[in-house]
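Milestone 3.1: sequence recovery, worked example.
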């Protein structure tokens, strides 16, 4: 393989004085990478290895264009990425620097799907079907209805790591369209990676026939798939093209690339940011060549210093990458720790779907134990727990729930959602209300203390924000209310629609009975009085109870502790990353016969090993259905190459 980093050096550009004064102190000495050779008015590809500041460089170039070239961010600029949060990062920085006003309406700073839709008005209107709100976009609910009512099959399997006929079929449709292939063409269908599994689950299945039925069903109801938004972008109206910025280009599928290339051709100035060595979803059609070859007419600027990844972590990552690719010549910033552990066991019963063993907080090397030692009480620290599969992520999330640790997780693997958080905060607030509040609003007020002016705090003034009030009422038994269930439902809808906060005295005056205060002012002890209302499982209630027992304050957000698969972690970072070793037997078999799979796996672990800014906790073992992948001596290799001793073992826990 040739070393694609043997490109001529580029000169950087000093920030204009006004921009230097606007950026935070840590960026005062920053430069616009490659700006001396390729100024912000010219098109570039920003090749950004982990932690090298792709977002910052995009923001600096955009700031220059908006201020120096008098471009209108609303009318002249399109900024798209794979995930909306990444577009928000650039917007947030430019607002902090005073380049964007707080009320700016950035219609085309969004995901590439949304930009296509806004340019072409593909999804419009409010569609209903069978008395329920369905469409116009095809999401999980619409897919469920199609599979159940039209095909008589199951859409989702009972367990997240199992496959059902419906999901395999619809994933096959989606993969084919996103890879510019035709589900009506049998030869194209055979190229879909889901097809063999679909045939095993559904002998005799005819994908072309079912594709026709699916298209007819969508046409009858006016529904559209998300890939159809991109297809409209291939032939339809263009978004603003004075400046086009496309981030995370290593994530694009062939259909996304086709849309992007059309916009790039039409644009005056282009900024494409990505890292071809962070392509980890080649199974979806992503390919480094979209960045390295299809856009090779754009000058490439390598961002040459990682501001996040410590020396030791970089050597561990480059060791895993080097099996298939040379590591980019990136300068590292400082030193970090790699702490190896023998992970305690996570045990799961595949027949019942239950976790039979989850390591608790008292066990060294458990997720909760690491969290307590390194994160709890540390305001400037965060934890990202990474695993290779969703099944592992579910186990780790359950272990955190067991310890009462509030955390975020990707869809379908657990974690805390808005409903859990709203209930937690509502019940935490109600814990400050006396049980006999309805009978004597003054008794027990001393639990509040004083306001500092000789007056006592009034529990009646405690305010639940709209979602807290609405969610709590949804899960409150009618027998503790002064209103019936129909009126309760209308009240919940009104609170959400009007975004009306609700004070304790408001609830007491009109909506709840004295029994309500007896049942719902005991924090963790009150959880058993909640009803599930079709939205909560027993596990959710237990997680809520344990979190209320562990924590005192309101939930301050979910970003401090997250559980993700490696594939979902691109763009994420934390001071502490807990990375579980292991690949599935299927991946292991595919690596033996597929060079593409070997390359994808090398990039995957390169991404995983470069997410931490301070400590990397390497977990060996823990899931007996996974096969070892990382070298056991990886910490020693990294320490040796960086000239530092390896951190002590996290503990023998088996």
């Amino acid at each position: 393989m040739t070393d694609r980093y043997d490109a001529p050096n580029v000169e950087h550009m000093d920030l204009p004085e006004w921009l230097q004064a606007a950026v935070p102190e840590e960026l005062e000495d920053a430069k616009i990478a490659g700006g001396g050779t390729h100024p912000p008015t010219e098109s570039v590809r920003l090749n950004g290895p982990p932690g090298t500041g792709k977002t910052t460089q995009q923001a600096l170039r955009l700031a220059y264009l908006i201020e120096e070239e008098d471009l209108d961010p609303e009318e002249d600029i399109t900024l798209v990425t794979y995930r909306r949060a990444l577009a928000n990062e650039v917007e947030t920085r430019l607002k902090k620097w005073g380049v964007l006003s707080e009320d700016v309406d950035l219609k085309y700073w969004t995901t590439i799907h949304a930009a296509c839709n806004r340019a072409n008005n593909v999804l419009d209107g409010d569609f209903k079907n069978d008395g329920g709100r369905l469409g116009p976009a095809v999401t999980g609910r619409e897919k469920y209805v199609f599979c159940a009512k039209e095909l008589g099959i199951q859409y989702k399997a009972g367990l997240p790591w199992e496959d059902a006929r419906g999901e395999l079929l619809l994933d096959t449709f989606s993969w084919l369209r996103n890879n510019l292939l035709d589900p009506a063409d049998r030869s194209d269908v055979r190229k879909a990676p889901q097809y063999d599994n679909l045939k095993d689950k559904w002998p005799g299945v005819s994908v072309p026939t079912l594709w026709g039925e699916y298209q007819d069903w969508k046409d009858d109801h006016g529904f559209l798939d998300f890939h159809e938004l991109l297809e409209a972008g291939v032939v339809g109206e263009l978004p603003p093209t004075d400046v086009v910025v496309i981030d995370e280009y290593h994530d694009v599928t062939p259909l996304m690339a086709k849309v992007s290339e059309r916009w790039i051709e039409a644009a005056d100035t282009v900024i494409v940011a990505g890292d071809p060595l962070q392509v980890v979803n080649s199974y979806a059609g992503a390919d480094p060549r979209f960045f390295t070859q299809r856009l090779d007419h754009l000058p490439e600027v390598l961002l040459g210093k990682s501001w996040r990844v410590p020396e030791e972590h970089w050597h561990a990552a480059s060791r895993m990458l080097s099996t298939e690719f040379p590591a980019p010549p990136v300068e590292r910033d400082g030193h970090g720790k790699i702490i190896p552990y023998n992970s305690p066991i996570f045990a799961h019963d595949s027949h019942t779907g239950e976790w039979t063993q989850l390591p608790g907080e008292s066990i060294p090397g458990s997720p909760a134990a690491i969290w307590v030692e390194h994160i709890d009480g540390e305001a400037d620290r965060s934890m990202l727990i990474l695993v290779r599969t969703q099944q592992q992520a579910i186990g780790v999330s359950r272990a955190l729930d067991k310890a009462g640790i509030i955390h975020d997780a990707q869809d379908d693997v657990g974690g805390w959602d808005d409903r859990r958080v709203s209930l937690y905060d509502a019940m935490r607030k109600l814990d400050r209300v006396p049980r006999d509040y309805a009978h004597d609003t003054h008794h027990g007020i001393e639990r509040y203390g004083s306001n500092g002016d000789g007056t006592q705090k009034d529990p009646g003034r405690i305010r639940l924000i709209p979602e807290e009030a609405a969610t709590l009422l949804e899960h409150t038994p009618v027998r503790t209310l002064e209103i019936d269930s129909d009126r309760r439902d209308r009240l919940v809808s009104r609170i959400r629609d009007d975004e009306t906060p609700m004070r304790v005295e408001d609830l007491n005056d009109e909506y709840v009975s004295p029994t309500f205060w007896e049942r719902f002012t005991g924090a963790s002890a009150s959880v058993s009085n909640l009803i599930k209302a079709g939205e909560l499982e027993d596990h959710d209630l237990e997680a809520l109870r344990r979190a209320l027992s562990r924590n005192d304050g309101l939930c301050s957000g979910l970003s401090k502790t997250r559980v993700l698969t490696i594939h979902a972690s691109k763009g994420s970072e934390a001071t502490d990353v807990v990375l579980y070793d292991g690949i599935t037997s299927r991946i292991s078999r595919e690596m033996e016969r597929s060079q593409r799979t070997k390359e994808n796996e090398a990039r995957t672990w390169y991404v995983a090993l470069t997410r931490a800014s301070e400590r990397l906790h390497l977990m060996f073992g823990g899931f007996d259905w996974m096969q070892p992948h990382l070298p056991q001596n990886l910490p020693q290799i990294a320490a040796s190459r960086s000239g530092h001793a390896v951190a002590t073992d996290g503990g023998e826990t088996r």
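The chain has four domains: 13-120+238-306, 140-223, 331-414+559-649, 418-443+456-550. DSSP finds 24 helices and 20 strands in the chain.
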